[in-house]
Amino acid sequence: MKLINFIKAHGLGNDFVIIDNFDHNINLSNINIRAMCDRKFGIGCDQLILVENSTIADCKMTIFNSDGSKAEACGNASRCVALIQMNAKSVNDLKIEINGNVFEARLSGQDVTVNMGKADFNWQNIPLSKPLEDIAWDYFFPLSDPIVVNVGNPHVIFLVDDFEEFDLKEIGPKIEHDQLFPKRVNVTLAKIIDQDNIQVKVWERGAGATFACGTAACATAAAAFHKKLVSQKVNILFKDRSLIINLLKDNVIEMTGEAKIIFSGEYYLTEK
């Protein structure tokens, strides 16, 4: 049995178990990760984050979904890790390595802003198994007109007029695991309120229905701006809170929102 120290944090209710692994003494199996993420028998979270040394940034974060799978990006977690590390280092800005890429973060008043890199609309980079043009118009019925984009991880966005017409908990996992998406996909239903506001509901790859998803906010804003439906700076509205997404030149995305440290604790890891 091994004792692991952790910090529990959240961004808009999207919650994380964050583990300091700078000494690289912690090796977690898929079973370990799922056990720690379990809300009844573990600590409980949407994603588990290992924070480690980096040769190209101030730190590196590795992201695991609650089903044990590895994720390439997580916007809300990046703000939480940035806040924890900035507090520890007594600085107002920080560079984080995620999946080989470096993301710059800074304090913005009470919130944290992270440069999330570029939105990529190339179907091969999403990735898709084939172009959207090659699938039938009713492929995603009752949803239609998907917009696909990669913002570090794959997303598909559907613009809707009424959320009540769709059961995301039923549709989400089917689309997530569809053969069109070889690396699975995050699924967002988006309702454009006006040029400055978009309301969303998200089915997150590997975690399911979550209170919020930072990369989905980035993907939705980039997709709507790409279609010339919203302004360059847009509020992405989740159930209770919102993120500010700013679309810069060349499809570069800045995300600003809250990051909250909830508590710290110790977890007794049973080796399996």
Describe this entry's structure for a reader.
The protein has 272 residues and is an alpha+beta fold. The protein folds into 2 domains: 2-116 and 258-269, Diaminopimelate Epimerase, Chain A, domain 1 (Roll), CATH 3.10.310; 118-254, Diaminopimelate Epimerase, Chain A, domain 1, CATH 3.10.310.10. Helices cover 17% and strands 40% of the residues. The chain has a 17-stranded mixed beta sheet that branches. It is globular, with a radius of gyration of 18 Å. The chain starts with a strand and ends with a strand.
Summed up:
This protein is of the alpha+beta class.
If classified by CATH, what would the architecture of the largest domain be? Roll
Level-1 CATH class name of the largest domain = Alpha Beta
List the quaternary state of the chains.
single chain
Strand composition percent: 35-45%
How many discrete domains? 2
- The helix/strand order is EEHEEEHEEEEEHEEEHEEEE
The helix/strand class is: alpha+beta
Give the biggest beta sheet. 17 strands, mixed
Core attributes:
Diaminopimelate Epimerase, Chain A, domain 1, 4 helices, 17 strands, globular, 272 residues, 2 domains, alpha+beta
Task: Describe the protein's topology.
Blueprint: E1 2-11, E2 14-20, H1 30-37, E3 47-52, E4 59-65, E5 70-71, H2 75-89, E6 93-98, E7 101-108, E8 111-118, E9 147-150, E10 154-159, H3 168-176, E11 186-194, E12 197-204, E13 208-209, H4 214-226, E14 233-237, E15 242-247, E16 252-257, E17 260-269
Parallel strand pairs: 2-3, 4-6, 10-11, 12-14
Antiparallel strand pairs: 1-2, 1-17, 3-4, 4-5, 6-7, 7-8, 8-16, 9-10, 11-12, 12-13, 14-15, 15-16
